[in-house]
Amino acid sequence: MKPPWPLKPFAVLASFGLLITLPQFIPQWHNWRVYEWRSASSLLDFQPRMREESPVEEELARLRPASPQPGQDPSKIADPHGAMDAFYASLLRTERGEPGAVTRILHYGDSPVTADLITADVRALLQERFGDSGHGAYLIARPWAWYNHRGIDVESGGWRADPATLRKQKDGWYGLGGVSFTGDTGAFSRIRLKRPGHTRLAVSFVAQPGGGELRVLAGDIEAGVLDTSASEPAASQESFDIPPEAQEIDLRVTRGPVRLFQVELFKPNPGIVYDSIGLNGTWAGVLAWHMNGRHWAEQLRRAKPSLVIVNYGTNESGYRNYIDTTYPRDVREIITRIRAAVPEASILIMSPMDRGVREAGGTIGTMPSIPHLVAVQAKLAAENGCAFFNTFDAMGGPGTMGKWYSAEPRLVSADFIHPLPAGGRIVGTLLYNALMDGYNAYKLRLLRQTAAVDRQPGTVRP
User: Fold this and answer.
1) Which range of residues forms the domain containing residue 317?
2) Does residue 233 have a cis peptide bond before it, meaning omega lies within 30 degrees of 0?
3) Which of 34, 44, 234, 352 could cysteine-pair with 314, CB 3.0–4.6 Å?
4) Cβ contacts of 265 within 8 Å, gap of 6 or more
């Protein structure tokens, strides 16, 4: 007996419905959403709605989030308790050119950071002012086609990439950069540097029973051979001296298996190292729970950052229930982990950019959950002794992505989420200016403290 409907068309429709529904509930698949199911009811609503408030204002009123302090200039970093002082102190030593005074910044973020957007411009501006101590961390290969760092290119083959977002490594070891790479004999990575000057290459890897060998070439010179065999598994790092004129680094597995995380590139002089650590499709829970806590702590301590920037939120913004329930716990766990690992480092919570959505009539507005998420982040930063940068307000607030999409040249892609290079440069410059504003205020405060001491009776300065 034949069914009352054709099976194949029904199966196709059911599969399609499943595919467009699952990304609504799985954060890792957020970037593949093609339809907002919560707007489905509007298809049957043929009467125009009379709104007294914008969708953003309605959402803020409904959720009643705690807002940043009134009068806070969004172009500046909110730091009422001096959370950034450790970073500014390191920056001052670097500016003075003290021996070994390297200020390292770890910038954790989602897809824009994956492509080194925003971060590349901050890195360039800081290194131009304070000196260039090297590029910092770079993944062994491209886990995603759009993984890219300005000034570096890579050609690779034979690697299996396991990002922390997918949680496939049972030990939770993903290195500093959040991706584990496994390769057998013949796997290789050829890293090309646009500019010379690096003198040290560090390779992060897993030493393990039966581990293979990795040959390291810098130009035509063999920098060394890395033996990854060990009696017990352990995350480790090996450094190699490379000639400053070398602009090509070749890593090749001569005997497998080998498990690597990232390379790190350094120059010998005082200056800035700005690490762009982006994971595609990531959210706060990845750093909080997917990364093995002890392993990540070891990676952070080895990096010795002066500042850790936690720049998440775009992917989380599509899940309002998560924002109001689990998200605060995840952020607090991230802060706890960073502070336990590197208590001397400053922590800056950086909000997401605006996220545009099509509204009735075709205009591009702001996703209503974005302002609420930003306010939640500001509150979490204040409660946990971290600094906060309101990227959303600094770039213009509600409706900014609509303006960016209509701009000539266009500043954001057609998803109203991912900035184009010119848009990334705007946000990068905003962050740099905010950092410098805080740094200059710090130096002025030190000057006033010194002047106050000098005015005290009986003070004798050497």
Assistant:
1) 54-133+269-456
2) no
3) 352
4) 134, 135, 136, 138, 193, 198, 200, 201
